[in-house]
Every structure is written in structure tokens, then in C-alpha cells.
Write a structure and sequence with these properties.
Strand content: over 45%
Largest sheet: 26 strands, mixed
Oligomer: single chain
Structural class: mainly beta
Number of strands: 26
Helix content: 10-25%
Radius of gyration: 27 Å
Distance between the termini: 37 Å
Number of domains: 2
């Protein structure tokens, strides 16, 4: 499933690998491509030409750009409508379908125009200067199908629809920077409402994509190729259910939440973590630590998605998801959500890690780091700070 990822990353580097005939091309009054000279000469737009596709500016005798021509594309027939069909043509010179866009006063007015918002193959469709649709190549579908062909990368097979400039249905793509690769956060929209998010990470010889859906009392994480995880938030804590590739529950982990004043109820001889809910710091501890070890071994053996596991480990209570929060999570890891406040371990009879206590004023906390020698280390000693202030300190350690 990963073999196609390196090709996706380097595809722009091989733009226009197939040499086009050196002869000039033109558009006639019917928007047909011809090699016979007309009033509109089509000049290659190097900036907008990428991958297998080619873009041209069609210029009149006064050197003004009147039209945009995009070539070497293919359409799913169901995306064609009576309105947009007049701007979709097919010709042997274009080596497939081609798109026409008309400018007015130098701005897109009617037809299709290449979008440069991100590296997806997207074409904006305008009617009288208003963005109505975006037709695009569904990159995730291409990856899933492992279709390493020109046709797979140049077929427009999905659509975004707009009303008054607002996305009504489709996806919004937010590129994000990650170490040693690239990433995207996809917002899935239906009836102008967000229904899901997708996090995609790409690197050399690696690719992963996880879909996040809000369900009753929790969240559902599903890898496009692999396993899934469901987190249910309860009054006592949270329940984490692990699913295999066939959608069967293979393990269930139960975690309990304790207020700091109830620290005596926590098993001090097992690890636990500090979390934040509703601006208050809690202790979270798994009910059966052996189940966690079994799950870790099982997940490694099955080569399951580590991205799902890493994401799930950061959701301790209901949150309002958005691309900004997810980007922070990707880049800042545990600290990105502002809900994980450190780990306390017990190993070989010794405690180590963070220890929290209530501060001197309402809503504040004290924190110390205990080394494995059971002595407090002076590099971290927090006093009378709110959870928001503490998380910023932890981020900068």
C-alpha cells in the first residue's frame, strides 16, 4: 500500500515528461483546439503545468489573456452537468479531455481554471465570476487503488460544490509541514457542516491516512488501509476499543479518571498520566495494565497504524475538533492538544516522572519532576500556574 507514495511526492518533478509537438496551437471561436492560426494563440503556462497535465494562456492580438486552456485530463461522466459541459471538450490534440475558462477584466468569469491552493489536481468552475464547483482528482482513492498510471492521476472524479462562496459539500485541504515529509488535514463537509476530518502524512516509502469521525459520546479513527479505534468518553473516564482490518473488536481498554484530591485511590505501583479536562488536572490510569501490553504486542505483530494509536492517545475527553487543533497535534505531539500533562512511572520499585498538586490559589497547580533516583530535579519546578500556563512551559522544555 505504500509503494505509490514516493511517486506521489516526486510526480511534479517529472512534469511534461512526454514531449509535446513544437507546433503552435490556437483556439477557434467554438473553443476547438487547432493548429490553424486564429485570433487566440495558446502559450504554455509553466507555473500551472504540472505532473501529466498542461495549462495554456490563450492570448489575443493585443497580448491580453482571454482564456485558460487545460489539457490531458479525463472526466467521470457523472460530474458533467448541462452548465459545465460547454467548457469541457475532447480532442486528439489535447490527448484527452480539455477545459476552457473565460476571463473578464483579467479575472476568472466563466468556465474552468487551475487551482494552485495545494498540490492536488483541482479545477475551479465559475459562472459569471462566482465559484460554483471544484472538480478534482481524489488522491486518496488513487492511493487506495494503487493505480500508478497516468489515467489515475489525471481523471477528475470528485466534486466540491459552493453557494455564495461557502463550501456546501466536498472537502477542504490544509497542507501542513512535518519533519521529513509532508502532510494534509482534510475537512469533509456535507450540507455546509463538517462531518469528518482526515489526516494524511507522506514521506519516502511511507504513507498513512486516518479518518476521524465524531460518534455518540466519542470519536472513531479509521485508517484507509488498516485498523480502527473507537474512543467512548464516560463519566468514569474513557473506553478504547480496537478493531482489526475486518472491523472486528479485538481488544478493549478501560481507563479511569481521578481528581487530584482522590490520589489515594490510584495504584501508585503502576504508571498513570496527568490530563486536563475542563481546565482541571486529573489522573488517568488504565484498569488492567496487562491488557495494554497485550494490545501493544498485537498491534506490532499485525503491523497496524501507529498514527491511529498516537492520535488516540491524545483524546481524553470530548473536544471541538478543527484543523488548527489537529495541526498542533501533528507538530507538537503530546503537547499539541493541551490535554496531556505528563506521565508518572513506577519501575523497579522507584517512582519517577511528573507529580502534580493543587496550587495556593483556585485553578492553579504545582508540578515537580521526580528523577529515577527519587530526588526532585531542579530543572522543572512549577508553582501556582494555571493549566494553560503549564502546558506552555512543558512545550518549551
Amino acid at each position: 500500500m505504500y509503494k505509490i507514495i514516493p511517486f506521489l511526492l516526486v510526480l511534479p518533478l517529472f512534469s511534461n515528461a512526454q514531449e509535446r509537438d513544437k507546433q503552435d496551437i490556437y483556439l477557434n471561436q467554438k473553443n476547438e483546439i487547432t493548429i490553424v492560426k486564429t485570433d487566440l494563440k495558446c502559450i504554455r503556462n509553466e507555473e500551472l503545468s504540472s505532473g501529466y497535465t498542461v495549462c495554456y494562456n490563450c492570448i489575443d492580438g493585443a497580448k491580453k489573456v482571454r482564456k485558460q486552456l487545460n489539457m490531458e485530463l479525463f472526466f467521470k461522466s457523472e460530474l458533467k452537468t448541462p452548465d459545465n459541459t460547454i467548457f469541457i471538450k475532447n480532442d486528439s490534440i489535447a490527448n484527452g479531455d480539455y477545459l476552457i475558462g473565460d476571463y473578464l477584466d483579467g479575472k476568472p468569469f466563466n468556465g474552468f481554471f487551475k487551482s494552485m491552493e495545494n498540490d492536488w489536481l483541482i479545477y475551479d468552475y465559475y459562472q459569471e465570476g462566482k465559484l460554483i464547483q471544484q472538480l478534482y482528482n481524489d488522491k486518496f482513492h488513487t492511493i487506495q487503488q494503487e493505480q500508478d498510471t497516468k489515467l489515475a492521476y489525471t481523471t477528475l472524479d470528485a466534486i466540491n460544490t459552493f453557494k455564495d462562496g461557502i463550501l456546501m459539500s466536498g472537502i477542504k485541504i490544509k497542507p501542513v509541514e512535518i519533519k521529513h515529509g509532508a502532510g494534509e488535514i482534510i475537512t469533509v463537509v456535507k450540507d455546509a457542516k463538517t462531518t469528518a476530518f482526515m489526516i494524511a502524512l507522506y514521506a519516502e516509502n511511507f504513507g498513512e491516512c486516518v479518518r476521524i469521525i465524531r460518534v455518540d459520546d466519542g470519536l472513531f479513527f479509521k485508517s484507509l488501509w488498516n485498523n480502527a479505534m473507537k474512543i467512548t468518553f464516560t463519566t468514569e473516564g474513557r473506553k478504547v476499543e480496537m478493531f482489526n482490518r475486518e472491523g472486528q473488536i479485538v481488544n478493549t481498554l478501560n481507563y479511569r479518571h481521578y481528581k487530584l484530591l482522590d490520589e489515594a485511590k490510584v495504584d501508585q505501583k503502576r504508571f498513570y498520566v496527568y490530563i486536563c479536562k475542563n481546565k482541571e488536572i486529573y489522573i488517568e490510569q488504565i484498569n488492567d495494565e496487562k491488557q495494554l501490553l497485550v494490545e501493544e504486542e498485537r498491534s506490532k505483530k499485525e503491523n497496524e497504524s501507529s498514527l491511529i494509536r498516537n492520535l488516540g492517545n491524545n483524546f481524553f475527553s470530548p473536544v471541538q475538533l478543527n484543523p488548527i487543533i489537529l495541526e498542533r497535534l501533528i507538530n507538537d505531539h503530546y503537547w499539541g492538544m493541551g490535554t496531556f500533562f505528563g506521565r508518572h512511572d513506577f519501575y523497579e520499585g522507584k517512582a519517577s516522572g511528573l507529580v502534580y498538586h493543587k496550587g495556593d490559589t483556585e485553578g492553579t497547580y504545582n508540578a515537580d519532576f521526580i528523577g529515577e533516583d527519587n530526588n526532585e530535579e531542579t530543572r522543572l519546578k512549577i508553582r501556582n500556574k494555571t493549566p494553560d500556563q503549564i502546558i506552555e512551559i512543558l512545550k518549551n522544555l
